[in-house]
Amino acid sequence: MLEKLKDIEHAGLEALQAVQDEAALEAWRVTHLGRSSDLMVVFSGLGGLSKEERPVVGQRANEVKNALEAAFADKAGGLRQAALKKSLEVEQLDVTLPGRKIPAGRLHPETQTMRELYHVFGEMGFQVYRSREVENDEFNFQLLNFPVGHPARDMQDTYFIEGGGSSDNPIILRTHTSPGQIRAMRWLSAMAPDNPPPVRIILPGMCYRFEQVTNRHETQFDQLEGLAIGPGITFSDLKGTLADFARRMFGQNTRTRFRASYFPFTEPSAEFDVECFICGGKGCAVCKGTGWLEIGGCGMVHPVVLKNGGYDPERYTGFAFGLGPQRMAMLRHHIDDIRYFWQNDLRFLEQF
Ligand code: PHE
């Protein structure tokens, strides 16, 4: 019996040397340590041995079992190490490499510009008034002193909503943020018709025009309107406010320029230029060599508009301006095509 155990141990250890992978190891375990292995047969035969033989054979059988189990564990550990080494080589997994970045969202460049404008005007005491994008002819044009058939309407061709409104007052998409002037004034003057409160607001938002789309013109775009009304407001206040705005927005040394212009709802009216913040006024490709960038229109609120808003033009004066935030973003970031803004191309958006 002891001789047989010696053979069992010897055969087991020898066979184990040939094992190369986990599957072969499991097969080895079944053959040499499994329920019907030669070793287990010895264990189950112990009862049939004599009293003298039984402890000797039993002890020896246990030794063999321990030896085989230890060799098995050893082999299993070695195989696991080898498998890990191999997979590291094959898969080239480097656990010290940084993990994959979770893509972080960001604000659209236009949103960034708008928020900057709110911040600057907020510091100057202006509050945001949000007005509707779907308007009617009356608010978009008539109350702003563009009567039906007025030639200035040609500058702002629009979109009509079919079946809405009446023939002399169709529903349209607003062509500028200026109709919000009337809505804000009416809302405020209704609170105290005999003594309406002063106004100092900005009106941001989308406007729509039926435009030939080019790199400079889109059918939808943002505007930022400003409106200030009170007793004794003058053109100097308008100039001072916009000059201060330009310095806060573009830098302390930014100069500004006003050129006479025309809008039906302001009188007098002006175009508002800032010194080119790319070249500092020397002249470059962005300002086309002039040293100045056109930023928006402005003027003193027309008496007819004040009256339409519920403000007595004998007692109140005011100024208004309209800025093009997208144009500012384009100038700043050297964006050469306005169509990029609403195309939602990540290659564009990820640059901001
Ligand atoms: N609403 C004008 C436009 O869109 C801009 C403007 C606003 C001009 C306020 C003067 C005062 O062209």
Features:
binds phenylalanine, alpha+beta, 352 residues, seven-stranded mixed beta sheet, three-stranded antiparallel beta sheet
Walk me through this protein's architecture.
There is one protein chain. The protein is an alpha+beta fold and 352 residues long. Helix content is 41%, strand content 21%. It is built from eleven helices and ten strands. The chain has helices spanning 2-18, 22-33, 38-45, 53-91, 109-123, 137-140, 179-191, 235-250, 303-308, 325-333, 346-349; strands at 127-128, 134-136, 160-166, 169-173, 199-208, 220-230, 256-263, 266-275, 292-301, 317-323. The strands form two sheets. Strands 1-5-6-10-9-8-7 form a seven-stranded mixed sheet, sandwiched between helices. It has a three-stranded antiparallel sheet with strand order 2-4-3. A hairpin with a 2-residue loop joins strand 3 and strand 4. Helix 5 packs across helix 10. The radius of gyration is 42 Å and the shape is rod-shaped. 31% of the residues are buried. The model has no long low-confidence stretch (mean pLDDT 92). Phenylalanine (PHE) binds next to strand 9 and strand 10.
